[in-house]
Amino acid sequence: MDLPKLSIAALGGTVSMQASHTGEGVIPTVSGEALLSSIPELTTLADVSVETLGLLPSASLDFGFLLSVLSWADFQVKLGAVGVVIIQGTDTLEEAAAFFDYLWPYDIPFVLTGAMRSASKPGADGPANLLDACRVALAQNSRQRGAQVVMNGQIHQARNVRKTDSLALQAFSSPVVGPAGLLLEDCVRYLRPPDPRTVLPLPEQTTHRVALLEASLSADTLLLENILALGYDGLVIGGFGAGHVSQRWATMIEHIAERVPVIVATRTGSGSTARASYGFSGGEMDLIRKGVSMAGFLCPRKARILLWLVLGCRRQHELGRYLDHDTRYQN
């Protein structure tokens, strides 16, 4: 019997890291092929192809590189892959997953995974996470779910997942909604059906820039005053509470929103921005009157990715529609 085709790309990250000398920090050195050799069971599940597209800490990934990974994944589908798995670092895993989810046009599963312990550490979690990710990518019930993150036996939707711990094995969670599924006794079990998805076209331009700033107590306005002069094409604010800023920030944001799109999200880590609760200067009702878009459940980091993609495909006039869509997904 022919085995299903599964394509894996390794980008680097902790899962690929080990120290060259005792006492030195770990660095990316382990290829995807080497990672795969530690999981012989996988060859009984699929006809696997693996490519090492990079050996980078995920903090050094960028949108251009992710677009090249997406092109690679698209080619794998054309070659007959029934699932795609991406191995990368966890520092930007939630952001990369959202980036891919906005652009992945297929029903075929697109699964990202990584590790919290380096390859050379006792109890390294990389092999188990990779095997779990492959099981998810091969599962028929994973279709039509866009990009997903598989870590520590849990399956998370790309738009919901957050890295909520810096070092713990259970570093990833989906605030408010919880994981989309679990791996139980090597079986992929989903806790809810797939959500409808809106997929953006590939960006026509990639040189534009979107700034991300966080509101904080007694913050000055110097950066805001210079956003337009610095050439930014969009701005995302991680606001207080349900999407609030100081009165001074609100005044500056009004001027910026006259020129470029501005999104205000909540910096809290969970929950949604409001729309009709607070009327003070700098509250969400005031900001909406000033031309600001509220992010809903979308976190500031993913709001920046959405705005960059929307600007790239010249659909900024439809930004509200995409944000309204996302508020249904509890992100």
Automatic annotation (TrEMBL):
InterPro entries: AsnASE_II (IPR004550), Asp/glu_Ase-like_sf (IPR036152), Asparaginase/glutaminase-like (IPR006034), Asparaginase_C (IPR040919), L-asparaginase_C (IPR027473), L-asparaginase_N (IPR027474), L-asparaginase_N_sf (IPR037152). Substrate binds at S58, T90, D91. Gene3D superfamilies: 3.40.50.40, L-asparaginase, N-terminal domain. The active site is at T14 (o-isoaspartyl threonine intermediate). Residues 209-317 form the Asparaginase/glutaminase C-terminal domain. GO terms for molecular function: asparaginase activity. Keywords: Hydrolase. Its EC number is 3.5.1.1. GO terms for biological process: asparagine metabolic process. Residues 6-193 form the L-asparaginase N-terminal domain. It comes from the Bacteria. Belongs to the asparaginase 1 family. This is Putative L-asparaginase periplasmic.
